User: Which sequence fits this backbone?
């Protein structure tokens, strides 16, 4: 903890890097707001709870957007909270529209801006048909990239536009062999406009960007990896590649790998307990219809799964209950 | 005299010459003031008067000059029956030429096959002409018969009434059993007493003016749907409209104005099947003595007037009702229009804001909540402009409140104020359904506590055109006492397009144990599904929130309730206990989702505004603390750097001091005495 680099930083820089001040300010602000309630059980306890919740990542629940996106840690916590709360929606296999995902986001953060959700949806849908349905995992990973790196992505967009229109901000010397390759491609019969920009050129601009600016950006090595297989790419193609890249996801640390996205044993157990409790509460009402409900909207019917579940009164180990669905 | 007649046109007649026994001569009188009798009876009379034997004396001789047979009678005949001639059932296809009989008064051509009326223009003294049961297609050849009084043309094929201009003395006109479609060309028959148009193709009755003597009009077995002009018949006493197509009294309303009518038949018409038939006819035609061939009694008349009065009452009631309905409809239309205007205006503002945001240069680190373009209702200065525009609309009411048995319907945001009215306990207690239309959901949310108090039995809520766009908004419904049924109309409520909305409602409002959503029953499986989908959210919202957040969120909700209650009841101290009880009951709901609240856009932004001040203060306060801390830290670090040196110097000084023990001891003692 008390590493020499940490101690070597001047005080303000250290505070800024760890966003300590943000949390301190927020803590004091919360204290002021809820003075009467908190005075009941002591200020010391309040601070304990506050910073505990910051560590656990629950401090962003139901907070305003300006706080949620204030620090990278907040963003990670928010992503994680969203995943945990709505993993069940994804597990159920429902495909939702962008608006509906936005609604779910708003359940956790009432003033979350629609713009961000729209941008995330554009990544998934490749800027096409914004009313399309999206799967939970697709949306979540795209949203992660968009939300966590939003400032970075804005600059990348600007760079992309520049490259597209031919303006090259950096005079980069491209090795002649590969440039020869690149110049040959148009001659291969693709008349008219080529899509996207050259990958390597693009990457070099990005590298400069990462060096120049201080806000969070994905690790350049991983970005290079994502770009390694392609010659040319479009903006949304690039973002899509980023969102699907496992390494970047792990570097962020908010969400599990795609394969494990639907698994959360602890929560599943808790959920089972809740469901059983609600069932017991309800079996006392005799007039409720026992047949499978027909709400009349398009959903995949999961009658078999539901019936098997409802017949069991004793919670059995979770791995016999749920078939993981992708 | 035996005569054989060989006629070129194939007519063969056997003629007897044996004299006939004298028959009872029935004087056939045409009396103008005989009492009326139905046309057909007259027909019978005429048929009876003529014996069929008269034809025996007829001699039809063919003429080489024309194709018409020529009639000749023996002079005996001529003297016996000088004024009448019967050619009944003679298989005639044409009218024969009748010579030397110019003083004939009655002529009978019944039951033949005559197609045209011809060769009788010389019989200018003819009074009665009977052409019943022939094949005549057109009335013609009568223009010289100025004395004609009885014209019987029943059972022919006549399509049109015409060529009767000169028959001004006509008394009886029988055209039954023809193909006549229109009453015309009879307006000059001012002496006509009986007109028989039964069994024709008439669809309506009019053009009857000028028939100043008509007492009997037979229109049975036609297709008549309406009757007009009958009030222009000053003498009409008998009107037979049986077996037609009359279905309402309005179509025969002119009958009410006819003071002479005493006998009328409507049987076989649709009108006769109606429940109100008898008394309506009686009530409207007080002059009637006989209806459908039955005399009308005093009792019937009395009943008729009583029933008619009741009808009047009912009509007035229904008229009032329909006026009321119309007013309601207009009001609702007006409210709908205003709503649309408002929505459009709001949408325009949103797009304008979007455009503004995209133009302005964005500082990358500053994407904060100011991009609230999705929530346009916050624009304050817009509202006044909107109001001014709305006042320019029509004067009709801008909202509508309607109580219909067990349903309370509110249209337009102005209607929300009506919840403050003094509702009688009985009315309020009966209301089980409350329906909101053309009102912003955010406005409804503010009024829900009032609803809870004033209408305790409201179990079914309906929302249409209320701008429900977020799942979150359903959280607001949790504060009610109970909801059994919820109906969210897709019109004007985009939230219905979401796949998960029903499950979310069931999840959030699980403590209500709702039975129906949008008409479909809620099943056990639905509830389980809802719990599965959102159970973790509830778990997180309750157990993972720090204690102080829980208290503050729940406290917020309670504070809001108090605020509304206080506003409505006034700040009376005695009521505080009741409010406390209320809040305790609040906790009865499933507490693990109680933190999922809905704050309307306006309140949320208000809160954020309030916090801004505090945030600024916190910022400066922390900055001060940080400054202090860094100063201390700096000083500490400086001290850390200097301390070794300082320590060495201290030690060196001390060692130098003590080097000479004797002089040190003297110095110390000196210091002690100096101190005193």
Assistant:
């Amino acid at each position: 903890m008390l590493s020499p680099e940490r101690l070597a930083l001047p005080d303000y820089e250290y505070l800024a890097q760890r966003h300590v001040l943000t949390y301190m300010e927020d803590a004091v602000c919360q204290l002021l707001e809820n003075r009467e309630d908190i005075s009941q059980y002591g200020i010391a306890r309040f601070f304990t709870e506050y910073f505990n919740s910051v560590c656990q990542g629950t401090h962003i629940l139901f907070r305003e957007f300006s706080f949620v996106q204030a620090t990278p840690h907040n963003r990670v916590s928010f992503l994680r909270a969203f995943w945990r709360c709505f993993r069940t929606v994804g597990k159920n296999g429902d495909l939702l529209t962008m608006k509906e995902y936005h609604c779910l986001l708003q359940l956790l953060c009432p003033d979350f801006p629609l713009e961000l959700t729209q941008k995330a949806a554009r990544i998934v849908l490749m800027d096409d048909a914004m009313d399309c349905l999206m799967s939970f995992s697709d949306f979540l990973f795209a949203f992660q990239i968009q939300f966590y790196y939003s400032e970075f992505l804005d600059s990348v967009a600007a760079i992309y536009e520049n490259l597209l229109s031919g303006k090259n901000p950096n005079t980069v010397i491209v090795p002649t062999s590969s440039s020869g390759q690149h110049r040959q491609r148009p001659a291969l019969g693709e008349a008219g406009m080529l899509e996207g920009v050259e990958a390597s050129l693009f990457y070099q601009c990005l590298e400069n960007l990462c060096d120049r600016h201080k806000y969070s950006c994905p690790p350049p090595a991983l970005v290079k990896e994502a770009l390694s297989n392609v010659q040319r790419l479009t903006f949304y193609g690039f973002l899509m590649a980023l969102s699907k890249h496992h390494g970047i996801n792990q570097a962020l640390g908010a969400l599990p790998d795609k394969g494990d996205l639907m698994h959360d044993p602890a929560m599943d157990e808790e959920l089972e307990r809740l469901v059983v409790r609600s069932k017991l509460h309800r079996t006392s009402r005799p007039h409720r219809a026992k047949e499978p409900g027909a709400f009349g909207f398009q959903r995949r019917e999961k009658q078999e799964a539901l019936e098997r579940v409802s017949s069991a009164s004793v919670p059995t180990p979770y791995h016999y209950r749920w078939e993981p669905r992708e | 005299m035996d005569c054989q007649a060989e006629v070129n046109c194939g007519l063969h007649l056997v003629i007897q010459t044996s004299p006939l026994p004298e028959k009872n001569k029935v004087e056939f009188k045409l009396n103008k003031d005989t009492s009326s009798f139905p046309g057909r009876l007259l027909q019978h009379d005429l048929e009876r008067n003529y014996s069929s034997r008269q034809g025996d004396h007829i001699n039809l001789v063919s003429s080489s000059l024309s194709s018409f047979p020529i009639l000749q009678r023996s002079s005996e005949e001529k003297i016996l029956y000088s004024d009448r001639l019967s050619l009944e059932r003679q298989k005639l296809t044409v009218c024969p030429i009748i010579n030397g009989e110019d003083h004939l008064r009655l002529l009978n051509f019944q039951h033949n096959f005559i197609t045209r009326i011809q060769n009788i223009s010389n019989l200018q003294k003819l009074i009665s002409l009977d052409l019943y049961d022939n094949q005549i297609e057109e009335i013609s050849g009568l223009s010289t018969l100025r004395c004609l009084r009885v014209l019987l043309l029943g059972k022919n094929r006549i399509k049109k009434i015409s060529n009767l201009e000169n028959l001004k003395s006509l008394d009886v006109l029988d055209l039954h059993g023809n193909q006549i479609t229109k009453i015309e060309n009879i307006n000059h028959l001012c002496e006509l007493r009986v007109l028989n148009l039964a069994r024709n193709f008439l669809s309506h009755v009019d053009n009857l003016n000028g028939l100043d003597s008509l007492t009997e009009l037979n229109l049975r077995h036609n297709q008549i749907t309406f009757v007009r002009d009958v009030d222009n018949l000053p003498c009409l006493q008998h009107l037979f409209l049986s077996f037609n197509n009359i279905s309402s009294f309005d179509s025969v309303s002119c009958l009410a104005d006819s003071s002479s009518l005493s006998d009328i038949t409507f049987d076989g018409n649709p009108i006769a099947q109606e429940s109100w038939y008898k008394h309506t006819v009686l009530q409207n035609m007080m002059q009637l003595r006989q209806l459908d061939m039955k005399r009308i009694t005093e009792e019937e008349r009395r009943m008729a007037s009583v029933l008619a009065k009741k009808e009047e009452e009912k009509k007035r009631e229904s008229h009032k009702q329909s006026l009321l309905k119309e007013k309601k409809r207009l009001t609702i239309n007006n409210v709908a229009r205003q709503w649309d205007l408002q929505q459009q205006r709001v949408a325009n503002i949103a797009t304008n804001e979007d455009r503004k945001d995209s133009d302005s240069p964005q500082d990358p680190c500053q994407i904060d909540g100011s991009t609230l373009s999705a929530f346009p209702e916050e624009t304050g200065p817009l509202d006044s402009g909107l109001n001014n525009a709305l006042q320019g609309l029509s004067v009709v009411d801008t909202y509508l409140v309607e109580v219909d048995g067990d349903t309370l319907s509110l249209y337009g945001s102005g209607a929300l104020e009506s919840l403050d009215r003094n509702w009688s306990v009985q009315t309020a207690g009966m209301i089980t359904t409350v329906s909101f239309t053309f009102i912003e959901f955010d406005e409804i949310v503010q009024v829900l506590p009032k609803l809870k108090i004033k209408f305790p039995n409201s179990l079914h809520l309906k929302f249409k055109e209320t701008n429900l766009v977020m799942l979150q908004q359903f959280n607001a419904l949790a504060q009610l006492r109970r909801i059994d049924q919820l109906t969210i109309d897709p019109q004007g409520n985009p939230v219905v397009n979401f796949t998960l909305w029903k499950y979310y409602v069931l999840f959030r409002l699980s403590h209500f144990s709702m039975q129906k959503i949008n008409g479909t029953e809620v099943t056990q499986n639905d509830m389980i599904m809802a719990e599965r989908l959102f159970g973790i959210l509830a778990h997180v919202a309750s157990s993972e929130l720090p204690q102080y957040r829980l208290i503050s969120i729940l406290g917020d909700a309670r504070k809001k309730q108090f605020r509304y209650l206080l506003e409505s009841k006034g700040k009376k101290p005695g009521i505080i206990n009741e409010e406390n009880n209320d809040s305790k009951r609040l906790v009865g709901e499933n507490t693990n989702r109680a933190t999922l609240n809905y704050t309307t856009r306006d309140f949320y932004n208000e809160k954020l505004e309030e916090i801004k001040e505090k945030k600024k203060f916190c910022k400066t306060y922390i900055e001060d603390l940080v400054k202090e801390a860094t100063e201390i830290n700096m000083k500490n670090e400086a001290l850390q750097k200097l301390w070794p040196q300082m320590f060495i110097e201290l030690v060196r000084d001390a060692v130098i001091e003590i080097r000479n023990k004797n002089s040190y001891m003297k110095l110390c003692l000196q210091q002690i005495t100096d101190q005193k």
